[in-house]
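Worked example 4.2. Below are the chains of a multi-component assembly; read each line carefully before continuing.
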Amino acid sequence: MNSEYFKKGIKAGIPIALGYFAVSFTFGMMAVKGGMTLWQSVLISLTNLTSAGQFAGLDIILAGGTLWEMALTQLIINLRYMLMSLTISQKLDKKYAFFHRFFVAFGMTDEIFGVSAAASGKVSPFFHYGAMALAIPGWTLGTLVGAIAGTVLPNFIISALSVAIYGMFLAIIIPPAKKNRTLVWVIVLAIALSTAFKYIPGLNKVSSGFAIIIVTVLVAALAAWLRPIKEEEEAVE
Amino acid sequence: MNIYLYILVMAGVTYLIRMLPLALATKEIKSPFIKSFLYYVPYACLAAMTFPAILGSTQYLISAIVGFLVAVLVAYWEKSLVVVALCACAAVFVCEQIIGWVL
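Applying the procedure described above to all two chains together yields the following structure tokens:
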């Protein structure tokens, strides 16, 4: 059974690893250009497994910022993971031992959260491990190759690979929305608000990590208030 | 300052953010409001992360729009994650080749 879940996780990890490669390649290139060693840039990717946080962290290291600045920046940019981990905390199958939660936590990226949330019913930690088994090497090796190459990937490759993650996100949220009108409104409203945070003067001063939290909390709370789920809805989800 | 100290703080803070809710919220949440809230979180969050970020992810705005529309369509047909992701990649690739050829 565990190997079954692991295989499913690996399958879900394919588009994740593809998308990660393009982004982490750029990270590796930038880290080495900034003066980090090959090993240091790979170590950051292996231990952090996050994109926006790493790019911001790299800036702080290269600028010689304080450790407080580093901690606070990571907290703000990565706070969205708390919402994701809280969601998955309710979805993890209780029959698995507690210690699995510490490993699942390490791989709680936007993308692994996405595929896990999309899985029907309870989720096994082995599904997470399967996705991590591709995502972590994708992220780390991308950094290594980028650091060695020391140059950017050709634009057309970055373009094509970058949309992989977004395509995956859409594949997660659209099919359930066909059967549930509330989800259509949740998606449309979230898109409208995040677009507002990007383009409206004043609002666009909010960092993208924070904007995602604000939009998610507002929209999910509004939907929960107006359209609380029934027990059976939860079961089929 | 020692680079490894920076990396330790970075990785430590990021891991704690991810780990604390998983380690602390082990009991099933009973509140209907919170359950509903958590049910909607993935949809709101993934939608907010996808758009408008996807528009800036490619060389040209038009190829991003094409990739987005293709992904929406293929996702609507309920194809698997891999298929939707690859179709979006292929659409962007083809679109940018055409643009490069026209320009």
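Take a moment to check your reading of the output against the notes. The two ends of chain B are 49 Å apart (CA to CA). Chain B touches chain A through 79 residues (CB under 8 Å).
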